[in-house]
Structure formats: C-alpha cells, structure tokens
Amino acid sequence: MSSSTVVQFNIQIGDELTFNVKPLLNEVKHALDKLIETGQSTVIDLRSIPLAPGEEEKILNVLGLGEVQARLDALGLSEVIETRYAGVWIVTHYNDDDHIISRFIEVTSMPEILCSQTEDIMAAYSRLGLTLNDEQKNNVEDS
Questions:
Q1: Hey, which CATH number is domain 3-110, 3.30.1370.140, 1.10.3720.10, 1.10.630.10, 1.10.2020.10?
Q2: Which of these, 113, 42, 37, 46, lies nearest to 76 by C-alpha position?
Q3: For the whole model, what pTM was predicted?
Q4: pLDDT band at 76, cuts 50/70/90?
Q5: Does the pLDDT value for residue 141 go beyond 70?
Q6: pLDDT for 92 beyond 80
Q7: In the beta sheet, which residues pair with residue 50?
Q8: How far apart are CA 88 and CA 71, in angstroms?
Q9: Distances (CA, A) of 140 to 130, 132, 136
Q10: What is the rounded (10 degree) CA torsion for 22, 27, 33, 36?
C-alpha cells in the first residue's frame, strides 16, 4: 500500500480543538484509581476518540516516558511503552508500511500483549524437554 493511499484512523476534526485532552487524562486517572482499588484494567482506544491535530501528541507528552519499552514483531510490529506513570502504558500497532493502525492507553500492571499465553508456555515446556533429551543423548554419544 503506498503512502498516498493509507487510511488515517485517527478521528480529527479540522483545526479546531476538541478539548478532549483534559477529560481523557482524567479518565486515565480514574482508571488508575480503579486498578489500585479493584485490580481491574482499563483500555482506552485513542483512535476512537475525536481529537484535533496535535491533541494526541499533547496527551502522549503529558504521560511522558517511563522505564520500560518493548517492540514486538508478532503479526506485525507493535510497540509497548510505559509512561512516566507506573501502570499507564501506550500500546501502538503498525502496518507493514510503519503507519500507525491503532494506539491504546492501557492502565494495567502488565499489558496483555506482553503476557505469555498458556498454549505458548506449554509448547515451550515441550520444546525445552526435547532439547534437554537431545543434549543428554549427544553427551552420552560423545563420551
């Protein structure tokens, strides 16, 4: 897909401010409160909220950068960045042309995309067992 045909997923309305920055940041604060009080995570889809040009960047600047950053290449490139506020993460997914296709604020102790799936853990256990068996065989044969 050429860059001239890329669909922009962020909903922006002209050059007029939507005044959604402060309410959205307050929503993040309330989500942190919910995480602290109940352990319940919250996901805010930044691309589904009407924002004027520059407002998403303002939100990201206010949240800032924390200590943890991860890049994943599983069914496309994804980036997970902890903000300066522990428990508040920015999760961004890109298409093959490195254009943002979705961006979320996740208020959680660990974004779901970084958690190992049970099936993957079970497969890893089996592979490690096979590797150890193969190494044992090789050690016996080398003796």
A1: 3.30.1370.140
A2: 113
A3: 0.77
A4: confident
A5: no
A6: yes
A7: none
A8: 17
A9: 15, 12, 6
A10: -120
Q: CB-based burial of residue 14 (10 Å sphere; 0-12 exposed, 13-18 middle, 19+ buried)?
A: exposed
- Structure-token pair, residue 101: 């296709």
**What is the pLDDT averaged over residues 7-19?**
52
Q: Specify the residue for token string 């303002």.
A: 58
46's tokens: 């930044």
Q: What is the dihedral angle through the alpha carbons of 128, 109, 59, 26, rounded to the nearest 10 degrees?
A: 160
Enter the tokens of residue 111. 């974004």
Q: What is the DSSP letter of 99?
A: -
> Look-up: residue for tokens 């067992």?
129
For the segment 108-132, what is each residue's pLDDT rounded down to a tens digit?
Answer: 999 999 998 899 999 999 999 999 9
Could you give the 3-state DSSP secondary structure of residue 111?
coil
- Decide: helix, strand or coil at residue 48: helix
Query: What are the pLDDT digits (tens) for 28-65?
Result: 999 999 999 999 999 999 999 988 889 999 999 999 99
- 């993460």: which residue's tokens? 89
pLDDT of residue 1: 38
Where do the domains of the chain lie?
3-110, 113-143
